[in-house]
Amino acid sequence: MIKLTNRLSAVAQLVREDASLADVGCDHGYLPAYLIMNGKIKSAVACDINKGPLDSCIQLVADYSFEDKIKCVLSDGLCNIAENECDDIAICGMGGELIAQILDNCTWAKNSSKHFILNPMTHPEILRKYLCDNGFEIQNDIIVKEGRHCYSVFDAYYTGNIFNCDKSYYYLGNIKNFENKDYFNHLLNYLENKLKSGEDFSDVISAIKEKL
Q: Counting runs of H as helices and runs of E as strands, what totals does the chain give?
């Protein structure tokens, strides 16, 4: 039986029932295999830019005899994924800048029927800004603790509406639960250090402190 990490469990919970999933940066393929195993999705395309991780995914798919449910593809982002192959798209385990680039390079990303579940390991603020600037609306926005680290997981749909947000939104997004003090204290420390270098993050710092 496959057991997901806290981070991937949060991603899995945001995937829509009976969706076809594209898992970008699939690594070993645990996410799509888990979702197939539990009957939440009907099919998946698992892709990775590197052959090594994809080979591990291919082996996992074979081990569980999911070859008719999960297609494994070598792909740079979504470049080798067809628009009709997926409803939900999970892009996990990479920096916010790279995720934004993957979305920007995808010719069919701006489709209101597509549901993006995103897990930037660094710089979620860069990804949130990209989404706001390019007509995507963020829905759920959560912080997940895994071991000593905390991660952002959020989902978005394309609406075509451009959101001119203040800087604090790019750091706080739609986060409703501020119980994870470690994440926000770390973020405060990061921004206060940036403040010393001359960048003005005073409004963002104040907005975070108001939530704690």
A: 8, 7
